[in-house]
Every structure is written in C-alpha cells, then in structure tokens.
Amino acid sequence: MDEMMEMERLGVHLRDWRIILGLSQELVAERANISRSTLIKLEQGTGGKLENFLTVAKVLGVNDRIDAAVDPLNTDLGRARAYMLSRQRAPRRN
C-alpha cells in the first residue's frame, strides 16, 4: 500500500471515530487546539503533522491503541529480539 493511501486510510479512521463518538469537527479541533481546516486535512489524509494526528487521537481516546500498535514488544518478533533493545551504542570515533 502506498504512503498516500495509508494516510487516507488513517484519516478515515480518525473521522470514523469522531463520528461514532458523536463529536463535531469544531469540537474536536477546539479540544486538540488545532484549526478545523487542519482537522479536515488530517481526516482526508492530505496533510498535517504527526503531533496534530496524535493530539486528535488523544481527544478521541484512541491514542493507547496507536501506542500499542507500534510497540515492538507486542509482537512475537519484538519479544524474541527484546535483548537487542538493551544494547548500548558503540562509542563514536573522532
């Protein structure tokens, strides 16, 4: 799936959550401290900052789901390779 389609799909999911919760664009934008036009762009997947996306997700109460979805320790591979996360970086050479 290309990046634009993925952005559109995530935007639709945000919009759908907002509608299911019975919240207007104006109210969500106000609570997220963004403009309504920024929210519209996020919902259409045509732009916006990750910070704004995450703030809207928090307003909608789905931010924990996003966090869980990208946590590598929620996967078999991530748990199997968790030992790699405790490694220290090699010091930089000058």
From TrEMBL:
One Pfam family, short name: HTH_3
Looking up InterPro entries in the UniProt record yields: Cro/C1-type_HTH, Lambda_DNA-bd_dom_sf
CDD domains in alphabetical order: HTH_XRE
Q: What positions does the domain HTH cro/C1-type occupy?
A: 14-69
What protein name is recorded for this chain? Transcriptional regulator with XRE-family HTH domain
